[in-house]
Amino acid sequence: MESNKSIFKRSLLNSLLFSGILIVNSFNPQESAAKNQENINIPKVLSYRSESCSCCKKWVNHLRDNGLEVVDNIVENISEIKQQYNVPNNLRSCHSAKIGNYTIEGHVPIESINKLFKEKPIISGIAVPGMPHGSPGMETHSHESHSHNYETYKVVSFSNNGNTKIFDQISP
Q: Percent of the chain, pLDDT > 70?
């Protein structure tokens, strides 16, 4: 038979352990990343990329690091996805995504995605044409230099009728 003292010690230990778990979880980095998004409601991201593209994987990680839930789909023919989502040829990049009703093309940063879901414009999507140096997934990490000479680049909105305009400008 277990003594009352032994039961008390075990209960106290369990309480302390549970309290420690609560404290550790309150400092969870994913929770603070979601708060950095100003509690914007952004649906699950459906990302499409080819298996061999490492910069696309880095972009997916950029979104996850900023609190978004991402389904990372590996496809054999990414052009079919771009065609399905009506991404204009001049805005195409290496990967595509669907977030709610919006198409996201290329290395679009979280700031522009947040802006998209704050403003909710009537457009088909946003794109970063090409692969600008310094955009999410296109960063370089050199131990020799802290100066990366990242480019200023534009995020372009597009609609199904072919209209495009500058949606955002990103400066390093």
A: 72
Report whether 105 contacts 127 (CB < 8 A): yes
pLDDT of residue 5: 57
CB 172 within 8 A of CB 134: yes
Q: What are the φ/ψ torsions at residue 164 (nearest 5 degrees)?
A: -135, 150
pLDDT digits (tens, 9 = 90+) for 24-79: 333 333 333 333 346 789 999 999 998 888 777 888 989 999 999 999 999 999 99
Question: What's the CA gap between 109 and 66, in Å, rounded?
Answer: 10
In the chain the first and final C-alpha atoms are separated, in Å, by 68
Q: Is the dihedral of CA 87, 92, 166, 134 positive or negative?
A: positive
Residue 135 contacts by C-beta under 8 Å, 6 or more apart in sequence?
Answer: 106, 107, 108, 109, 128, 151, 153, 170
Q: Which two structure tokens, joined as six digits, stand for 150?
A: 């990242």
What pLDDT sits at residue 57?
85
The answer to whether residues 90 and 96 touch, using CB atoms and an 8 Å cutoff, is no
CB-based contact 129:92 (threshold 8 Å): yes
